[in-house]
Amino acid sequence: MRNGLITLLLVLASLTYGQESYYYSGWGKIRNSKNEVVSSREIKTTFVNEFEIIQSYRQARTEANVGNVLMGGGFGFALGYTASAYFGPTFFKPAPVIGGVLLGGIGVAFRMLSRKTIKETVDEMNNYQRRKKYQSYIDSSQIIVNSNGIGLSVSF
Q1: CA-CA-CA-CA dihedral for 25, 31, 32, 33, to nearest 10
Q2: pLDDT band with cut points at 50, 70 and 90 for residue 134
């Protein structure tokens, strides 16, 4: 009896804390509690009823993509212009290089902003999971006392 009760308590404790949690692992990747990368499609299907979470996630992904394009384009342009001026017959002008570096810097700023937004989205996702976990659907519960002992009756 005692072993069965201890086993039941351990199983209930593990089920209580068995919620899915998410964390940001860098480079725009969101991972779940099993350390698996969560795809955009999974996020959209899991949080289909939470418009704010989906909106925040889309905004973060858009910021990351814009940052990637600006960063790659700006630094690539600066490097390409410098290489063509160095190896080619043209005279080197610093204005295009400065423009490319500034464009790359703006891209880095977008990437930093997207990182912050993704972290806030992950926090919102975890808060939603906690709220969902604590919603109870118990119709009734009764404590039963008879000659055999004390019991608990729960109806879902």
Answers
A1: -40
A2: low
Cα separation, 32 vs 1, whole angstroms:
37
Residue 150, strand partner residues:
145
**Cα–Cα distance, 92 to 86 (Å, whole number):** 7
Computed from CA positions of residues 126, 135, 17, 39, in that sequence, does the dihedral angle turn out positive or negative? negative
> Is the CB of residue 26 less than 8 Å from the CB of residue 116?
no
* Amino acid at position 85, single letter: A
Q: Which residues contact 90 (CB under 8 A, 6 or more apart)?
A: 84
pLDDT surpassing 60 at residue 15: no
Q: For all residues of the chain together, what is the average pLDDT?
A: 82
pTM of the complete model: 0.66
Residue type, position 16, single letter: T
Share of the chain above pLDDT 70, in %: 81
CA dihedral 67, 69, 74, 75 (to 10 degrees): 90
